[in-house]
Amino acid sequence: MKTIHFTTGMPRAGTTLFQNILAQNPKFYASGTSGVLELLYASRANFTNLSEFKAQDVDLMDKAFKSYCKYAVSGWYEGLTDRPVCFDKSRGWVHYYEFLSSFIENPKVFLIVRDIRGCLSSMEKKFRKNMFRHDNNDKPGELKFISVEDRVNTWVQNPPVGLAIKRIYGAIQRGVLNGGRVHIVRFEDLSSNPEKTMKRAYQYLGEDYYNHDFNNVQQFTIENDGEFGQYGDHKIKPVVKPIAPDWKEILGGKFSDSIVASHQWFYDSFYPEVK
After folding, report:
1. Which residues contact 125 (CB under 8 A, 6 or more apart)?
2. Structural domain range at position 139
3. Which of 20, 41, 120, 158 is deepest in the core (most CB within 10 A)?
4. Is 145 part of a structural domain of the chain?
5. Number of domains forming the structure of the chain
6. CA dist., res. 181 & res. 226, Å (int)
7. 26 or 132: whose pLDDT is higher?
8. pTM assigned to the model
């Protein structure tokens, strides 16, 4: 039976890079954006609502459904790879941690975070680069999506950015991130000191460290980015190196400061050095 671990995180935060670094290890299989959680989500709805399940012994049905979920995830990866350790990537795992824990004991989950200003600056740059593509939020006749502030406020109040941030906030409220159950990886640490960051990840996994080549990270995950719109670029660069903060230039200094002020809980949790 496969050993399955889980990667979740914010958009434009390096989850694809993290997965492809992991995939250098011949023991590891790392997915692109996965729909496995959605399969389980749909199954959960049927299990909850169908009379065929509700009419039987509740405890027995609960036990059977949890077993179904466990073997469904493992079975999915049995069909994908011969590698024994797999990493399923979905932005939803941090929100569904308790659901995941109901059928996998003490699951290993990586939460990739990035300074929100960096995520939004990346989104804004993608918008400017792809203005020949239509964005459904772009409605100048309704005075929407015209200014940087308009776009940022739209992104932080809607999927994928707003949803990811809110899921992380909910996980903090529920105590999911307490006690080292979920391992936090900051994008800035991954890009500036990848070896130290990956060694900490291996310690969390309880695996022997593999000597990764951070100067030649090849693209293992293949995704059709057309399915994710102009903001869903999942192509990585082969060399891992720091990315200089540019949000003051892209978003504006005062507006960048207001992003920190309105998400102080996030910075207190993950970037306490930011004041």
Report:
1. 250
2. 3-270
3. 120
4. yes
5. 1
6. 34
7. 26
8. 0.95
